[in-house]
């Protein structure tokens, strides 16, 4: 059945105009319009131009910073310039964090400076810095199982390295050291925690990212070493001599900062209260310019809705683009959006978030009711000329949409090639030159197709599968 659908839709994606193809989900005219939108978007630089503007005119936009405020105003202006007929913002509150300075050095047995960065939410060292002997653990479990006497009074170092995969699957297996390492180390008496950067590169550019302190444990400084410097520390440890290091980190916390989810809409013509939600997050870490994380996503979803908004006739349903606040420190924008719009859950027909850089999309997954899977197959057929294959009814809509997905919103998951994403993720190398305009345009074309056909389809996608069913 899927093979037959693919053949039929391949015909639609080229030159067929036969009215006999129209079926229950989409009209022939809808499918042909989707093909035209796909071709227009895949050959246009609009998405890339949006990212270029954001990274050039705003740059790094740490949540709660002055640049974050600039980004909010930039987003409102861009929505208006791109032709969105409704633009507004919704307040999001959160504690904000700022790095002031950070240095590190090996004191003995072989003195050398190292490149490190403070993890988001890390507390400061004493003003004069912090000195201690390094105790090494291959991974978080090894630290968790260590005797406190082995750790007490030392700098705990976790050296697990992230593997390279197209879908970035090793991130989940590695990031626990960043998120929970400080609290586990502190519970055993460590004076600081130091991790190998959660990244796949060999550059001397450490990767930041948020950590979470356990309320039951002391707060200790937490830093990430660049991959080459993590290797350097291991080589010195392998000499069989004690390794002593000095860390000097200063950070600052604002207990309550304010930013905004910035929202733009292309209003629906006949079903304006039914929403197709496209998302990305507007904030970024402070080290780079936030090009791949998540300027690319911002450009993709804004451009996709823009193309639909340029049609002579508006789509049936509303296309809503949400640029979420402060994803990086804990999905604050996504959680605030859920709280503000919980009563409208049933009006959110389906959603998708772009937050994995600008690599080419290679597969379409979804999370919809089983009866709606044939509609996904038809959408997949329009995407096939973009070299996007049909995946499974087991998709993840993206981090900021997870609060809504967990309570049943249907989602698309457009899987991107993330082979190099974690080379640059959360580093000073997250800059515009890492984005291929052609690859970004392919992403825009795919999001344009799914948004338009979702807005036009007869019927609905139903509820997403419950969390327990996704694990089967």
Lay out the secondary structure.
Layout: H1 2-12, H2 28-42, H3 46-57, H4 66-81, E1 86-108, E2 112-114, E3 116-118, E4 130-137, H5 140-144, H6 148-151, E5 155-158, H7 170-174, H8 176-187, E6 192-196, E7 222-225, H9 227-237, E8 244-266, E9 271-281, H10 291-309, E10 317-324, H11 332-341, E11 348-353, E12 361-367, H12 373-383, E13 389-390, H13 402-405, E14 411-416, H14 421-424, H15 437-456, H16 467-470
Parallel strand pairs: 4-5, 5-6, 6-7, 9-10, 9-11, 12-13
Antiparallel strand pairs: 1-2, 1-8, 3-7, 4-8, 8-10, 12-14
Describe, in plain words, how this protein is organized in 3D.
The longest helix is centred in the C-terminal third of the chain and has 20 residues. The protein is built from 16 helices and 14 strands. Helix 1 packs across helix 12 and helix 10 packs across helix 15. The protein is elongated, with a radius of gyration of 24 Å. The two termini are 24 Å apart. It has two domains: 288 residues, Zn peptidases (Aminopeptidase), CATH 3.40.630; 158 residues, Glucose Oxidase, domain 1 (3-Layer(bba) Sandwich), CATH 3.50.30. The strands form two sheets. Strands 1, 2, 3, 4, 5, 6, 7, 8, 9, 10 and 11 form an eleven-stranded mixed beta sheet that branches. Strands 13-12-14 form a three-stranded mixed beta sheet, with helices on one face. It is α/β, with parallel strands linked by helices and 472 residues long.
């Amino acid at each position: 059945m899927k093979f037959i659908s693919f053949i039929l839709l391949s015909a639609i994606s080229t030159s067929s105009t036969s009215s006999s193809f129209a079926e229950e989900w989409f009209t022939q005219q809808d499918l042909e319009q989707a093909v035209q939108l796909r071709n227009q978007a895949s050959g246009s630089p609009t998405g890339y131009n949006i990212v270029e503007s954001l990274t050039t005119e705003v740059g790094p936009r740490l949540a709660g910073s002055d640049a974050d405020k600039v980004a909010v105003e930039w987003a409102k202006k861009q929505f208006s310039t791109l032709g969105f007929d409704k633009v507004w913002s919704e307040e999001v509150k959160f504690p904000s964090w700022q790095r002031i300075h950070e240095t590190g050095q090996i004191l003995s047995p072989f003195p050398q400076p190292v490149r490190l960065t403070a993890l988001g939410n890390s507390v400061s060292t004493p003003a004069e810095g912090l000195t201690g002997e390094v105790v090494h653990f291959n991974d978080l479990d090894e630290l968790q199982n260590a005797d406190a006497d082995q750790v007490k009074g030392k700098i705990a170092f976790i050296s697990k390295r992230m593997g390279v995969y197209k879908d970035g699957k090793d991130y989940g297996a590695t990031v626990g050291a960043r998120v929970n390492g400080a609290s586990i180390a502190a519970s055993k008496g460590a004076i600081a925690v130091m991790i190998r950067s959660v990244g796949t590169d060999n550059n001397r550019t450490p990767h930041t990212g948020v950590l979470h302190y356990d309320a039951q444990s002391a707060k200790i400084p937490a830093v990430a070493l660049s991959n080459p410097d993590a290797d350097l520390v291991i080589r010195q440890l392998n000499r069989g001599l004690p390794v002593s290091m000095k860390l000097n980190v200063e950070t600052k916390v604002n207990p309550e900062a304010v930013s905004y989810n910035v929202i733009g809409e292309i209003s629906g013509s006949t079903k304006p209260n039914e929403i197709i939600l496209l998302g990305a997050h507007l904030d970024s870490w402070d080290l780079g310019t936030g090009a791949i994380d998540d300027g690319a996503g911002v450009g993709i979803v804004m451009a996709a809705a823009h193309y639909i908004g340029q049609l002579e006739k508006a789509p049936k349903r509303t296309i809503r683009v949400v640029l979420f606040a402060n994803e990086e420190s804990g999905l604050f924008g996504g959680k605030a959006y859920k709280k503000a719009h919980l009563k409208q859950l049933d009006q959110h027909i389906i959603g998708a978030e772009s937050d994995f850089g600008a690599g080419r999309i290679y597969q379409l997954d979804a999370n919809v009711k089983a009866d709606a899977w044939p509609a996904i197959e038809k959408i997949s057929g329009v995407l096939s000329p973009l070299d996007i294959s049909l995946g499974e009814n087991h998709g993840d809509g993206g981090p900021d949409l997870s609060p809504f997905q967990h309570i049943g919103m249907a989602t698309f998951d457009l899987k991107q090639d993330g082979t190099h994403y974690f080379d640059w993720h959360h580093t000073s190398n997250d800059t515009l030159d890492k984005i291929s305009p052609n690859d970004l345009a392919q992403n825009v074309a795919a999001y344009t197709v799914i948004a338009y056909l979702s807005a036009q389809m007869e019927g609905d996608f139903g509820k997403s599968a419950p969390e327990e069913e996704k694990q089967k």
